[in-house]
Design goal:
Blueprint (H helix, E strand, L loop, with lengths): L1 E5 L10 H23 L11 E6 H5 L6 E2 L19 E5 L14 H28 L5 H20 L9 H4 L15
Parallel strand pairs: 1-2, 2-4
Antiparallel strand pairs: 3-4
Helix pairs in contact: 1-3, 1-4, 3-4
Length: 188
């Protein structure tokens, strides 16, 4: 369900094959199914039945760079939006241990820690964009971010063996030894 593309000019000491395998396994084995169950299936503009995950230093170069993003422009044909990739794309920073680009230092350990959270969050935006495009009206940023943050929680429950509606409380989430090892609740 994922095509993972790495920029060949990313900084040294970044993701290795095992990281990409883990990313694909998390997306294919959990994230995709959980989010489709909650939000519905994404579009398939490019008819490849895949989400393209691009790991590139170009995100690191942006001013005030995000960790990752989705551009809904990619859901439109090139005739309407010349910059479109005409498909479902997710862009994320490359690990940059030396802080070569605007983003500054982004260690491999931090990138590995945040991968699941970012995949869960940004895939929700792909679903939102494709489903809202189908009805001709996009969501406000507030609603879109709220839904993507909820997606992080839904996915985290599966990875952590938790269930919704149990009112876990701060002591179960914010334990210093890592009850939230992937940062799913960082927005709280």
């Amino acid at each position: 369900r994922a095509i993972i593309v790495e920029d060949t000019l990313n900084p040294a000491d970044g993701f290795v094959a095992a990281d990409f395998d883990a990313m694909a396994a998390d997306f294919d084995g959990t994230i995709y199914d959980v989010e489709v169950d909650f939000f519905g299936a994404p579009s398939d503009i490019d008819s490849n039945q895949r989400i393209v995950i691009v790991v590139t230093k170009e995100v690191n170069k942006l001013t005030s760079p995000p960790l990752a993003f989705v551009a809904h422009a990619n859901l439109f044909p090139v005739a309407t939006c010349p910059a479109s990739n005409e498909g479902e794309y997710y862009w994320t920073r490359a690990p940059d241990p030396l802080g070569t680009y605007n983003a500054g230092e982004y260690t491999l350990a931090d990138a590995r820690l945040e991968t699941r959270e970012l995949l869960a969050h940004e895939f929700a935006h792909i679903i939102q964009g494709s489903r809202r495009k189908a009805v001709g009206e996009f969501m406000t940023a507030f609603n879109a971010e709220g839904g993507a943050t909820a997606a992080q929680e839904f996915v985290s429950f599966v990875f952590e063996g938790r269930s919704d509606g149990l009112n876990y409380g701060a002591d179960a989430i914010y334990v210093s030894q890592g009850a939230d090892p992937n940062g799913y609740y960082g927005y709280m």
